[in-house]
Write a structure and sequence with these properties.
There is one protein chain. This protein has 405 residues and is α/β, with parallel strands linked by helices. Helix content is 49%, strand content 9%. The chain folds into two domains: 185 residues, no CATH class; 190 residues, 3-Layer(aba) Sandwich (Rossmann fold). It contains 16 helices and eight strands.
């Protein structure tokens, strides 16, 4: 039986951190393993995987009417305004009560379109009393030109709740001053941003985060920076939930998704040697083929390689979905079942199993507590190689999707 020792604890404290597990979670893993072995920790790991798949994220988008909240929400979900399920847009105030929109692939992600503040129905004081601000994980406050008194009132109220608030200047593509047909975009953007920050600080908002975006050009301006900032300010699990919801607009987004998925692999590898493990023909050990099947399918969806995500990307870019699929050249896009897993495990280029591949620094808890069993090493190695293969194909597809003729 494994016994915890100070040198191992010190090593783990210095170099190993279990993704998605707090310090007390790691203590539970260690204690459960010491008392009941590998089988005892599997429910704890499965519990964490369930949390990754089911934790809800509620994002509030607010601001005065006419600032483009609906179009912004559609852009965040990878939808055009004309797509099925898109938030309704209009020249008048279309949102009369908080309206939620689920992500089309990940229904645990909710975007809330809040009524515009400062309207006849929702003057500022009534707005503050009727909106349930506590339910939202963070707020995005939109302005179409400049942030006004109503915006600062909202900002101060949100700050009192100790919630994250991000100021977004929407429709930024319309904000450039054209002089003799020449526009220095970077200089103009810096002026707009500095002016927004100055006015907000003058109104009593400390260190406001201001982003300049176009909901029609999500690869440009501050849209990529906004999404990266939103993700980095969330805790581990909610960051994972948010990152997987991001539309595939850049190769950097896909790299973020790959990094998040890599954090899950050690947990799936641990479960693969459990109760559901079965012998693999041609190999001398067992693994859970069902976990591998589910893992690969989930990786594809997370990376936006499922049919629905590909169609949304085709809609946004104006490229035929068949063109996008042609850029993805991997057998992993076909039907994934247990027979397929057996074929790629035995003699496949995907797997070259050796315990030496499982570097402790990348396998927190399991590497230091349990060692690398054959079934663990198989699943760990296979899923890492599958993930790299899918990511490379997805990045090639995105590059082609947004390439200009």
């Amino acid at each position: 039986m494994f016994v915890w020792n100070p040198s191992l604890r010190e090593k783990m404290d210095q170099t190993l951190r279990a993704p998605f597990f707090l310090a007390e979670d790691v203590e539970r893993l260690q204690s459960s393993y010491n008392s009941g072995g590998l089988e005892a920790i599997m429910p704890l790991i499965q519990e964490k995987i369930n949390a990754l798949n089911n934790t809800e994220l509620h994002i509030a988008v607010t601001g005065e009417s006419g600032t483009g909240k609906s179009t912004f929400i559609n852009a965040m979900r990878g939808l055009k305004n004309t797509d099925e399920g898109a938030a309704e847009i209009g020249n008048v105030e279309t949102t009369m009560k908080p309206t939620k929109y689920q992500h089309p692939s990940f229904p645990e992600v909710y975007f809330w379109d809040l009524p515009g503040v400062g309207t006849v129905k929702y003057p500022a004081k009534k707005y503050l009393s009727e909106m349930n601000f506590q339910k939202y994980d963070f707020f995005i406050l939109l302005s179409g030109d400049r942030f006004k008194e109503h915006d600062t009132i909202l900002a101060k109220e949100i700050n009192l709740l100790e919630k994250k608030l991000y100021f977004v200047r929407s429709k930024i593509e319309n904000s450039f001053h054209v002089q003799s047909g020449i526009v220095d975009k970077e200089t103009e953007l810096e002026k707009i941003r500095d002016n927004s920050v100055y006015n907000l600080e003058k109104a009593g908002i400390s260190q406001p985060a201001v982003f300049l975006v176009s909901s029609y050009q999500t690869r440009e301006y501050d849209f990529p920076t906004l999404n990266e900032t939103l993700a980095n300010n969330l805790n581990d699990i909610k960051k994972d939930v948010f990152v997987k919801s991001l539309p595939n607009t850049t190769v950097k987004v896909l790299a973020q998704k790959r990094d998040q998925l890599k954090k899950r692999i050690w947990m799936l590898a641990t479960l693969s040697g459990g109760v559901g493990a079965v012998p693999v023909p041609g190999l001398s050990f067992a693994c859970d083929l069902g976990i591998l099947v589910t893992g690969i399918i989930e990786f594809r969806t997370y990376l936006g390689l499922d049919d629905a995500s590909l169609q949304r990307l085709a809609n946004i870019t104006g490229k035929p979905v068949e063109f996008l699929k042609a850029e993805v050249k991997t057998p992993l896009m076909g039907e994934i079942n247990k027979e397929f897993i057996k074929r790629i495990v035995v003699g496949s280029t995907f797997v070259g199993i050796s315990v030496a591949e499982v570097v402790l620094n990348f396998v927190p808890v399991i590497g230091s507590i349990f060692g690398a069993t054959s079934s663990f090493a198989l699943t760990y190695s296979l899923l890492n190689k599958v993930l790299d293969e899918l990511t490379e194909n997805a990045q090639r597809m995105v590059t082609a999707a947004f390439a200009t003729s």
